Structures are given as C-alpha cells and as structure tokens.
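WP5 quarterly update. Target: Ig-like domain-containing protein. Source organism: Streptomyces argenteolus. Length: 178 aa.
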Amino acid sequence: MTTRRRLLAPLALLLASSAMVTTSAQTASAADPLVISCTASATQYYSPGLTLVDKPTNITASATYSCIGGGTVNSAQLSFDYTVNAGCLPTTSPVTTGVTRLDWNEGPDSVITSTFVITRPVGQTVGTTIGTVTSGQFSGYIANQTGTYPALDLLACATPGGVTSSQGILALTLTQPF
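Structure tokens (predicted):
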C-alpha cells in the first residue's frame, strides 16, 4: 500500500499540473491574444509649428490602425496628445509621458499610459513610446509604438509659422505580459 501511494501521489500531481497548463493555454489563446500588431499612416500636428528653435510644443495625431492577432478586434482609432520641448533641428531628445487612446472596432476602448521619446536619425523624426494599457480592453498589456516621419523641410522651419504637420507611418504592438 505504501509503494502504491508513493506512485499515485506524483502521478496525481502530474495530471493536475497538465490539466492546469492545458486550461490556461486554452483560455489565453481563446480570450486573450499573446500579441496584437497594428500599422497605420498618420498625420502628426505641431502647435505651435516647429521652427529652428526648440520650444514647448503640443503634438497630436489621429489615425486608424489595421491590426492582426486580435481575432475580431482588427482595427482601432488612435488619438494621442503630448507636449514636449521640440524644434526642427536635432538638438535634444525630448522625453515626456502621456496618454494614448485606442477606440477598437469591437469591445471597450483602451487607454495606454506611456513614456514618449523623440530621436532624429538621419534627419527623420522617430517617436517611440513604451507603456502599459492602464484601462479598458487588453488592460495590463505592454504597449510599444513607433512613429516614423520623413525629414522636416528646413526652409519651412525657418518661417515664423514653422512646420505644423507631417505624415508618417505608425506601428503598434500590444504584448500580453508573462
């Protein structure tokens, strides 16, 4: 009887563990995708316009993402609003925090709280955010977004109104935390 009990206890533990892993995997794949990947073309607006001198600038954008990996959640309307010290010349790498809102085609909106960094490799403007979905659909997911915009027109930067908008490509990845 003792030998039988010693053999059955590990077997029962193994079966229980297998059942938990199978149940967790089925739940995660059916209800919560591991990764959602989205892309969009976007117009970014600068107020006041970007000039040759850095100054506090409000940067806003809206776009419609096309997404894969989220099942029936396959698009989202994006809006964001950040204020950073910015200009046309790559003199600084502005860093700020802010909120991005995603209005999904299906289900509740998501709010992403993130840190926003601007770099200017080879004259392009690259805005990168990393954060977390803090409320709504996919709450708790890690969010990475990159916006790439072509080099700004330096002649327009030299005018009093500066550059008030630019068009670029956005990529967003939401990843389920482990």
